[in-house]
From TrEMBL, chain A:
Pfam families: ABC_tran. Part of the ABC transporter complex PstSACB involved in phosphate import. Responsible for energy coupling to the transport system. The gene is pstB. It comes from Peribacillus simplex. SUPFAM superfamilies: P-loop containing nucleoside triphosphate hydrolases. This is Phosphate transporter ATP-binding protein. One of its GO terms (cellular component) is plasma membrane. The keyword Protease does not apply. Gene3D superfamilies: P-loop containing nucleotide triphosphate hydrolases (3.40.50.300). It is a peripheral membrane protein.
Length: 275, 292
């Protein structure tokens, strides 16, 4: 009962928002009626969300609410988990990515991902960055060198590593490793960057650097970020979706969510009453 | 109120520490037994065989006279055998492991296959000899050739290599694969560039252990019908041959005392070959561990 009420409340919120400042931005992702099951476990329930170009969309919610599951369906990384079933549609640039004729390799060259734990390859910094371009068939040394410099500069780590590009990436600190992973992601020149709790394993200073970086990156990319840190969502995102028990409780621009939430449960979560 | 009585804990302490010391001693003794046996073995072999071990011994063919007997045919034969066994068993073994770990769906059929591969590793080698005799020697008419014996040996060590490679592949962290897939790499690119480089030290360790077993095995080759006494070198994989353990077995079963010394010299050669192979594995492994 409550569910239906919420959804009716939620849709006007999006409409109002669309008329507002961000009305002109193009949609990169349109999710409609997405359901997902892990075996018998109904993990995502009837998700409807649109994400916009050159914006930062934050997904917040307590542990186990389905926010990581959702972001992993956006590049179909979820398929690595056995026994997952989905219904509904996720359109990326007007094409349904859940259609099996859409090759994941193709999708993931457009949609890059940064993971929760920094996961550089046990190779040199240089080799980490050129991994993506190389698997896509770029062999020209000069172009690769340029990609390395551009990507590392884009991820605000160039000055720290330019003199040791051929040293092993494991020698970097955790925060540097995560920025290297962002650089590695930029190297494939994606359209969208998915970030799954990218700062949860990092110290406050490294976190701040990544947050500043996200602000820079949204000029050129569309960013979708999962975070369990509400302040982070408030600081860096343009829109915020609140997930609870596999449902989207509320989705609107970040200011509205944090200053004037529509739903009681959103308010309870944001004010720290649970989660 | 405290639930733990500290004086009781203190009273128990000496006994706990004593048990700790006793256990350390027991495990040290267990290790010592193995070391002692190995030391006696080495001592016996070297004192007996070192006299017969010289350049002539390596250059001569087997002979009826112990002072002229040499190991040339068997040594070269063992190397020929490895030339067949190493590529066949490693390629098939690693290929199978990659398929089972990376491509195959996880269901009861693959579980059944995995369990049975582990079981195969425990099948007595003489059974593989019978298989080789039936399939390679007779059905495929390869006769008593290096190829037939090599394929038989490959089957024998295959399960060990598969299990070792599976474990090495499974130990590659999941987030490395995710990083690769996340950039649009195909499964094969991920296997080739991320999984295999990280798994190679483990695969090689298992592979070399398996090859060491193959070079010391005798039973399957007896069943396949490899001759024990040969006075020529094989020219192709279709020629017949003999190997070190067969030659050693042949010498030890002779009544003359001198042949026992020749056999000991043969064992030294076999041990050196084994150590040589193991050190190659260590070198390759260290090279990869430095890079990864």
């Amino acid at each position: 009962m409550n569910m239906t009420l919420t959804r009716e409340k939620e849709s006007p919120a999006i409409e109002i928002d669309n008329v507002g400042s961000a009305a002109l931005t193009e949609k990169v992702y349109e999710t409609s009626n997405l359901n997902l099951w892990y075996g018998e476990n109904h993990a995502l329930k009837n998700i409807n969300l649109d994400m916009h170009q050159n914006e930062v969309t934050a997904i917040i919610g307590p542990s186990g609410c389905g926010k990581s599951t959702y972001i992993k369906t956006l590049n179909r990384m979820i398929e690595l988990v056995p026994d997952v079933k989905t219904t509904g549609q996720i359109k990326y640039r007007n094409r349904n990515i859940l259609d099996q004729s859409y090759k994941v390799e193709d999708l993931r060259t457009q949609v890059g991902m940064v993971f929760q734990k920094p996961n550089p390859f046990p190779k040199s910094i240089y080799e980490n960055v050129v991994y993506g371009p190389k698997i896509h068939g770029i062999k020209n040394k000069k172009i690769l060198d340029e990609i390395v410099e551009k990507s590392l500069k884009g991820a605000a780590i160039w000055d720290e590593v330019k003199d040791r590009l051929h040293e092993n990436a494991y020698g970097l600190s955790g925060g540097q490793q995560q920025r290297l992973c962002i650089a590695r992601c930029l190297a494939i020149e994606p359209d969208v960057i998915l970030m799954d709790e990218p700062t949860s394993a990092l110290d406050p200073i490294s976190t701040l650097k990544i947050e500043e970086l996200v602000q820079e990156l949204k000029k050129d990319f569309s960013i979708i970020i999962v975070t369990h840190n509400m302040q982070q969502a408030a600081r860096i995102s343009d829109r915020t979706a609140f997930f609870l028990n596999g449902e989207v409780i509320e989705y609107s621009d970040t200011n509205t969510i944090f200053s004037n939430p529509n739903d009681k449960r959103t308010e309870d979560y944001i004010t720290g009453r649970f989660g | 109120m405290k639930l733990i009585n500290k004086s009781h804990v203190a009273k128990k302490m000496p006994a706990r520490l004593a048990v700790n010391t006793i256990c350390k001693g027991l495990f040290f003794l267990a290790t010592l037994v193995g070391l002692l046996v190995l030391a006696i073995l080495f001592y016996r072999i070297f004192t007996q065989g070192i006299g017969s071990l010289n350049v002539d011994f390596l250059q001569n063919f087997a002979s009826r006279k112990p002072e002229e007997a040499g190991i040339k045919a068997a040594l070269i034969g063992s190397i020929w055998l490895m030339v067949v066994v190493a590529p066949v068993s490693l390629l098939l073994g690693v290929g199978t492991a990659i398929y089972l770990e990376e491509y195959a769906r996880k269901n009861w059929i693959t579980t059944f296959i995995k369990v049975n591969i582990s079981n195969l590793a425990g099948v007595p080698s003489i059974v593989f000899g019978l298989l080789g005799l039936t399939v390679f020697v007779r059905a495929l008419a390869l006769d008593r050739s290096i190829l037939a014996a090599g394929l038989t040996m490959s089957l024998l060590v295959l399960p060990v290599i598969i299990v070792a490679a599976q474990e090495a592949i499974r130990a590659v962290p999941r987030d490395l694969r995710e990083a690769s897939f996340g950039m649009g790499a195909t499964k094969w690119q991920t296997i080739l560039k991320v999984v295999l480089p990280a798994a190679i030290p483990g695969i090689l360790t298992g592979g070399i252990l398996a090859l060491s077993r193959a070079i010391g095995e005798t039973a399957p080759l007896v069943v396949v019908g490899i001759p024990m006494f040969i006075a020529f070198l094989p020219q192709t994989v279709m020629d017949t041959f003999t190997v070190l353990p067969m030659q050693i077995y042949n010498w030890t079963s002779r009544p003359q005392e001198e042949f026992q010394q020749v056999a000991a010299a043969g064992i030294i050669v076999l041990l050196i070959l084994l150590i040589f192979m193991n050190s190659i594995a260590v070198i390759i492994r260290n090279k990869f561990q430095k890079r990864y």
